[in-house]
Amino acid sequence: MAENQKYWTILVMASLPHSVKFPEQQAYDDEVDKLQITMVRLITIGLLRSWHGFQSLKSHIDYLFTNGAEIFNPLLHNDLLLDDEVCSQSLKFSWIVNTLYEVHSMIEQNIIAWDNYLDHFIRPSLDKGQVWTEADKDKLCGKIERCNEMRNKLRYMQNGFKDQRSRALALREGVFLASSILGARASTRLGENVQLLTFVSIFYLPLSFCTSLWSTTNEFSYKALACTMVSVSAATYLVVFNLRYIVGIIHGKYLRWKRTAINQMKQEYRQPWRRIADSLERSLSRAGRGESEPSEWWIVVYYVLKLLEKGGLRNAGRHQATVESRS
Questions:
Q1: Any stretches that span the bilayer, and where are they (predicted)?
Q2: What's CA 111's distance to the chain center, in Å?
Q3: pLDDT 10s digits, 267-302
């Protein structure tokens, strides 16, 4: 059995850039060892190649992050949070987040593959009583130690990628926050401009109204026009500049009128009006929550019907009084 272990064949499925040789591969190209030793050596070379590839990716992502230079340059840090019209910053950080998520999974798969191979193939071969010389055992242990070092390096690299992903997420959220703040400021400026234009148009409304009214006849004098323009303008501007206060007063009176109508509906003997009153009363407590509310036109309908009922009762009473007087 020990003699037959010298004759084995390993087919290495490598990618196209595999022609580049690392020092560890060059040192053992001419050696022929036991199968387990050779497999561990090839796995070590594969992990070493993975580590170099991930290291280049990590350096590239650090370059995309300006490599920490923004710590000493606040303007450079601000540039990271400012997006352009094509959303290049947010797209870049999204690419980093998605890429690092895939890289994290790839590294984890490499580590799991080595751990499973070590636990289910290498260690059982040492425990099954196969013939191992002290030199082969020492060589295998050295290869395993070297492979475990590469595994730990990959784990450390994985933690570094995790930190980069957290940083990319924070920067992407910062870009979104900065964009929303800039958009809110632009909306505020636009609203102020619209408000200014509204006030300017309101300023000319009473003037245009009075002049158009005076142009229909020649019976009014210019003195009357001037007095009318001043009066109408003063009344208009008084209402406009106190519009919020006036609306608040009207809204308060409407709420009191609404509560009175609801109380009257709740005292009705007809069940539909009671259900409408309950719905309107619940709408008072959940106002502004975005929930569906019953139509308040029911209040108008209710008062109209009450007026019609009162009018019908009055007519009926008058008719009855007329009949009694005739009799």
A1: 194-214, 220-247
A2: 34
A3: 877 788 888 888 888 877 765 555 567 788 888 888
Q: What pTM was computed for the model?
A: 0.53
pLDDT at 94 over 70: yes
Between the CA of residue 40 and those of 1, 156, 198, 290, what are the distances in Å?
Answer: 21, 21, 79, 65
Q: What is the dihedral of CA 157, 161, 167, 171, to 10 degrees?
A: 140
Total residue count of the chain as it appears in this document:
327
Q: How far is CA 225 from CA 186, 188, 216, in A?
A: 42, 39, 12
Three-point CA angle 181, 185, 188, nearest 5°: 140
d(CA 150, CA 114): 10
213-222 contacts at long range (C-beta below 8 A, 24 or more positions apart): none
The DSSP call for residue 21 is P
